[in-house]
């Protein structure tokens, strides 16, 4: 029994039934499964919005899926889902509602937090963002010297960087190509240096993105950016007002920094940082793609929200993806999950998902405050195909680890490519389909022999197969499709956190490092004697100072 009165997850009959099923199933061979069920390639598919999901190449049977759904019922995934959509404070350790879904609710929706409908405020901020984005895009908003804004530099980190940076990259084809949009996150000064070294301050707008406005990396970079600007432009506060805007929940800190709160775009404590790029945190993106495209993206999010909220368990895609992850992580021993987009525009997608998934579900303490006795979130990793094929796919095909993977691809290349470059798309997607095929079905020793391969090389050229993949296919990477994809993963992460009985919406695990960094800094800069420093760190600090000639 858990401290909260729930039966311990791994002692529930549903969990035990899955463990028994896993024993009975033994090693499922996808070749045999497909031979026995020739319609599996179409039967094990789902659609949501513009997304076609093929889960046929998974090591599951109808019974596996049924037992997994029973586990979801036993752990009340849909009950917690409804509580989230209702605005209940399901982020218990921070005592907050979890309402990123309200960010994409239609104008006439009612979503209440503590009895107050938050939707009008969401749309008021969206309207304010749209009017500002339009003014920047049209040239009506000018810099302090009257020059048009040609560069936008987003300064933020974590959720205040990864989301807008990923989406900007994903939707490059929809951006205003006359605007340079750059993203600075690292407190390593070279990040800001490289972002601004070739920019004209008079044409540069800094968008300071920080939910708390206390994050040391962001405040430090923002301060340096302000110095750079004021060194080039006289004008003090008046110049800052034309070149700095803030995206935050913390008006007081924004004002302390010297940004006029009239130039602040607000969001709320019920939006988690990693769930925030469809809030005011998306301003740089909105400036790049324009308000209409931004709203199309929100429509895409909403479509998957509605699906997650209403679709029955059998056809609920986020539920399915979450359950498959539970199957591999908790019953088949997988430690990681690869996300492999076959679109160069999604080059930052997996990095974005790393925060979404690993900061949400990388926890060993349950909602009841006790250490969990089961595996929680996986290591999420991956880069765009086909680059990965020539790097680490070897290990996925022939290594000793089970690595479930998501393959994400599109039927159409983006419209603006030349005909010659568009023609490359079939080759890209041929690689995509070939990889999932090879991973699932491999190549038997007999097949290798039949090619005349010498016997001593046969084991080396054999592919065991049975490496599970999900294929997510859409016609084209549009703003709406991007919103659909992100919402799909947000809700997948939700499902898993609900099953594992962890709070997916706090992030206490990032705090200790922040505190220690503050403590160690004076030792580096002033050689201060920091009490309680361990022997290894003390020696490292001394060596660092020596190397810097201090
Ligand atoms: O340290 C982790 C974190 O709190 C993330 O959850 C968050 O996205 C990031 O830092 C940035 O926080 P903020 O937007 O408050 O600057």
UniProtKB/TrEMBL annotation:
First-listed, main subcellular location of the protein, grouped into a coarse class: cytoplasm
Tagged with keyword Isomerase: yes
Sorted UniProt keywords: Cytoplasm, Gluconeogenesis, Glycolysis, Isomerase
Pathway: Carbohydrate biosynthesis; gluconeogenesis; Carbohydrate degradation; glycolysis; D-glyceraldehyde 3-phosphate and glycerone phosphate from D-glucose: step 2/4
Domain of life of the native organism: Bacteria
UniProt xrefs under Pfam families: PGI (PF00342)
Record-level Gene Ontology MF annotations: glucose-6-phosphate isomerase activity
Catalysed reaction equations from the record: alpha-D-glucose 6-phosphate = beta-D-fructose 6-phosphate
Residues annotated as the enzyme's active site: 359 (proton donor), 390, 514
Subcellular localization(s) per the UniProt record: Cytoplasm
Record-listed E.C. numbers: 5.3.1.9
The keyword Transmembrane is assigned to this record: no
Family listed: Belongs to the GPI family.
PANTHER family documented for this protein: GLUCOSE-6-PHOSPHATE ISOMERASE (PTHR11469)
Xref: NCBIfam families: PRK00179.1
Function: Catalyzes the reversible isomerization of glucose-6-phosphate to fructose-6-phosphate.
UniProt name for this protein: Glucose-6-phosphate isomerase
Organism of derivation: Streptomyces incanus
